[in-house]
TrEMBL record:
Pfam families reported for this sequence: RecX_HTH1 (PF21982), RecX_HTH2 (PF02631), RecX_HTH3 (PF21981)
Classification of source organism: Bacteria, Bacillati, Actinomycetota, Actinomycetes, Propionibacteriales
Acidic residues bias spans: 16-30
Domain RecX third three-helical residues, every copy: 129-173
Subcellular location: Cytoplasm
InterPro entries: RecX_HTH_1st, RecX_HTH_2nd, RecX_HTH_3rd, Regulatory_RecX, WH-like_DNA-bd_sf
Function: Modulates RecA activity.
Protein's recorded name: Regulatory protein RecX
Gene3D superfamilies: Winged helix-like DNA-binding domain superfamily/Winged helix DNA-binding domain
Entry GO CC: cytoplasm
Organism: Nocardioides simplex
Length: 191
């Protein structure tokens, strides 16, 4: 009779062992180790070149080996900062409602060149950004019905500012959306 052993889930976020950990040998080929690290990281999600460089540096892969491999990965299209930036911007706009300013900061943190970030962010329609701000305000307004209108306005403008929207756009959108809600409806009166 065979005994049942549940499979241990694979932790794809785990890094390969450090040099002093079991499984890491001093005679390990740095290029093979680096290739495995890169493929493991890219199998989880797309990453920028700098994120991968940082990962390889933390794993003590020699800089020249890392550079050569990353160049090769770029040649074959496995590492593409422009495609990464486009996907990042689209995903963050959709999931978090971030404005171009906040997205630019995030792309810079990810190591995307300013020129590449500017090109990708220029593709975002200004009208789409305003509509995203309006959608955020409408959604948040549902939970603010009992608040004083000025308090709600202050909170809504603050929320938009934290998401990277400029003060002018934030105030205009909040004023417009609050104006669209009738006084009786805002105060919660049912008359």
């Amino acid at each position: 009779m065979s005994s049942f052993r549940p499979r241990t889930p694979i932790d794809r976020t785990a890094e390969p062992p450090d040099e002093d950990e079991p499984g890491w040998t001093e005679d390990a080929d740095p290029e093979s180790v680096a290739r495995k690290i890169l493929l493991d990281q890219l199998s989880i999600k797309a990453r920028s070149r700098r994120e991968l460089e940082d990962r390889l540096a933390r794993r003590k892969v020699p800089e020249e080996v890392a550079s050569q491999l990353l160049d090769r990965f770029e040649e074959v299209g496995l590492v593409d900062d422009e495609a990464f930036a486009r996907a990042w911007v689209e995903g963050r706009r959709r999931s978090r409602g971030l404005a171009r300013t906040a997205l630019a900061v995030e792309l810079r943190r990810k190591g995307i060149a300013d020129e590449t970030a500017r090109e990708v962010l220029d593709e975002v329609e200004p009208g789409a950004e305003e509509e995203a701000a309006r959608a955020l305000v409408r959604k948040k307004l549902r939970s603010m019905r009992g608040l004083d209108e000025q308090v709600a306005a202050r909170r809504l403008v603050g929320m938009l500012a934290r998401k990277g929207y400029g003060a002018g756009l934030a105030h205009a959108v909040v004023r417009s959306e609050l104006g669209a809600v009738a006084g009786a409806e805002w105060s919660g009166d049912d008359d």
